[in-house]
Amino acid sequence: MKAKPMASAKRETTDALAHLVRRFEHGSRVPGWDEAADLTKDPAVVPDPATTPVPPELASLIEVSMTRYPDRRSAAIPALRAAQDHHGWLSPSAIEQVAAVMRLTPGYLIAVASFYDMFEHRPVGQNTIYVCTNISCSLRGADKVFEAMVDAVGDDPDFNVRSFECLGACDIAPMASVNAVYVGPLSISDCDTIVAQLRAGQPTLPDKQLGGRPVARAWWASGRHPEGEPAGGRGAEGPTAIGN
Amino acid sequence: MELLFKDIDAPGLNTLRVYEQRGGYEMSRRALDMHPATALEELQASGVRGRGGAGFAMGKKASFLPQGDMDKYLVCNADESEPGTFKDRELMQKNPHLLIEGVLISAHAVGANKAFIYIRGEYDYVADILEAALAEAKAAGHVGALDLWCHRGAGAYICGEETALLDSLEGKRGNPRLKPPFPAVQGLYQGPTLINNVETLMNAPIILRMGGAEYAKIGTETSTGTKVVSVSGCVQRPGNYEVVLGTPTREIIFDLAGGPPEGRSIKCFFPGGSSSPVLPGTDENLDLPYDFDALQKAGTMLGSGAIIVVDDSVPILDVCMKTAKFYRHESCGKCTPCREGTNWTVKMLERIERGEATPMDLDIMSSICDNIIGNCLCVLGDAMAMPVSSMIKHFRKEFEAHMEHMQLTSTEMSRGPHAGPYDVLEPIGVATAALG
């Protein structure tokens, strides 16, 4: 019991000084990475399945994926993704549930989850929009599309707009992944359309979805591509900086 | 000549029925009747080199796996995250069964009994197609005794690196491992593991159909076969084009992809994804044959076969900054040169952008890059250092012109509150003397 007052005193000092420490925007992918850890708490152990209620459909998904691998830990990513789909984000109770089914500590799962970009550690909107802002897309004006998308969404809590690294669809640049549907090439005005369609529960830009597009040689020979895109899109504006 | 793109747009090719009508799974059945060594010989005779980035001969890599009846693994690297690359996406989306057949043949050749296709998390809709195809193939009995599963990642560029991919597949953070031991000896779950790119594996059924020796006649002597090239950036017709290796680069950029927009010219291009050193758009560079060795001789690499074209309207500083920021974000943080080097390169580029840098900073950046290359567990740091230092080498004048321009135009106000004095460069002796 002696250690506790000391630790909490230290904690208070850290808190008091926290505002003096310069924070950088980038850095670890984990929000809260620079927050002080509570060293007075014991590390979390494997949760007891008897006292951790897990939604049965989530539990069965995790159990099925565990059977596929020689080592059950391999199912960590599929299990966390299932939990995120179920809860909307990786809340402490979501992590707890995965840990209970997989017989792992929550700490292990948080360590894994914090490494990957697609896991959310804060509550987010249910509509996920990843706008690719990597090199090929930004050569075609993706940064402006991202800004327009952020503006189109405004402060609607139902949306989660993120600028993302290369999504692997540079042929339809600038593009975005809207609830895992790839659409492109996007113009600034498409952003409002996408947001309106999501709000109305309609499919996203059916003409611009990647799905049915033939390979480049056939696509460009077919002449089916909309007028003026994509080279004209940027070319018309004259020299543009990528803008980071 | 189109091998992988033959029939690619046939309606319903992603279904088993259409794929079988077009001769699907004949080769995997034939391979299963062969002795594994015979199948391996065919792959070796084809001389096909890995399409994922390193360009290592596929057959040779497979032959490194030990003999014996231990658990052996085959992992298909479908974590295609290299900026500018989108060939695997199109191939898997349209012809998933060809990949499954390729996995079956390769697994038989090396005696693997468990196989995983590690597909990046962002490709969810491709993974759905692939899983549906896999279920169909399993129901039809094509997969046989092989324990084959599709594993979805969750968004990390580093997991395209083979050992990081194995860690990620084992359910850990995707940190690269120390090599040796190479995965062929100790890989997934410490067992012998063969890791191949999607496009490489898709070539296996084609090689068996043609015969390894016949396949080796396509392309150049050391770069055999065809390659799906992803052309993107400032071109009129971006997309995937299948070309025979050794095709002049000019033909790919201009004849197939339409060249830069009207009235523009090519400033530079990345010949093999954003990790490859850039080449300025000179006639000499555009006439380079697009194959592994010619590009290596020119000081760059074929990499994943993604050509990103940058035209003359784009400042090179922006390209450099985008590239560096990407690698800073994706560095896993395990090795210091990469973690700190990518971060410092971005900081220095930002300094250049704000007009607080001097030409000496370019030399410091080059030296940072030199200190990253070859000093880390994997090549992610090198992948930033190589293009950045090549841009400094080829476009130094433009960087310097930007610095000069910024210094002439910037005022104290525009430089922001945190900017230090840039015009007072005192000799070190004076500064230390003042400190007492």
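qc> The first strand of chain B starts at residue 73 and ends at 78.
qc> done
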